[in-house]
Amino acid sequence: MHFKNHDLVDRVDLPGIRIEPIPVRDPRGQAVDGLHATRITLDNQAQLNSYTTEMVKGVILGMRAAANDRACVAVVFTGAGTRAFCTGGNTKEYAEYYAGRPEEYRQYMRLFNDMVTAILHCDKPVICRVNGMRIAGGQEIGMACDFSVAQDLANFGQAGPKHGSAPDGGSTDFLPLFVGMERAMESCTLCEPWSAHKALRLGLLTRIVPALKVDGAYVANPMVITDRWTDEFGRIVHGEFKTGAERGAAKDMLARGTVDLALLDREVDALVTSLALTMPGCLAKTVESVRKHKLAHWDKNRETNRAWLGLNMMTEGRAGFRAFHEGGKECREPDFLLLRRQLAEGAVWGPELIEAALEKAHAAAR
User: Fold this and answer.
1) pLDDT in tens, 193-212
2) Sign of torsion, CA 246 248 251 256?
């Protein structure tokens, strides 16, 4: 049969994005002829798979192509390597081009919003294969997916208020649906990372698997408390990061081990198989119906958020992203207290205030 072509472009070939078919396996583990999943990979390992403007375009086109692919069962959205799924927008690009250019950033945010919408509108279920840290905008595009399967060394969280932005690219819409209002408020404002074990416990993830191999055997993330649920005060500590001497011993174990994502791939393959063993139309309708809860919030807020985020690049965004990009490893943040004090004393946003706030980060880089 001759099919109509509904793709927007004939081929997606943009830097930092890889799109490839991967096998769909039957319950015995054999590849199924005539079917596949589509893997979309953020490939910018040198910058922790942060997405550039061109990569955002690639994700949009890749999701649209996978949606139209009649033989595609599901989309697997992931990052290259073992360190990061995605750490959000490319701070080099933000600091060097978008900072101070609100209208340019507003246009960029149109693309970003279209990327999130492309995930939420994809006609195939989308699995986030969390191969490493999922932070900031990476957390947002991950939550737009329908399932998240993670290796347990991955961390999850936001960065907005620490680096001159607000997590309005999806986290303020989606995170309360996953974990409730107070946990979402804590994550979005304080920007403290969660372990994969904690993220699973709070309902953010579908499944997790170990990735660290020590002496040839898989072990759970040694940096995280995984063997008890409460402390002496009745607080849940399962999934919290270790401290003190326990943390030091955990770092030693990490140094002795190697990261192997074979179990992650096996778990993703098993989920794709489970999805394939359903009626395609009924599956698509069910996915669409569950997604409506995310879309109700996303569609209501994304345009006003885009406008605010653009204007913010004249002030706190300009200072925050420059601090992250120009600061040293010891300090990637502006001097928050100096900034707050000067604003309270009547300072006006401009180059003088920004440079004063950046001095702490610049000193760390010297």
Assistant:
1) 999 999 999 999 999 999 99
2) negative
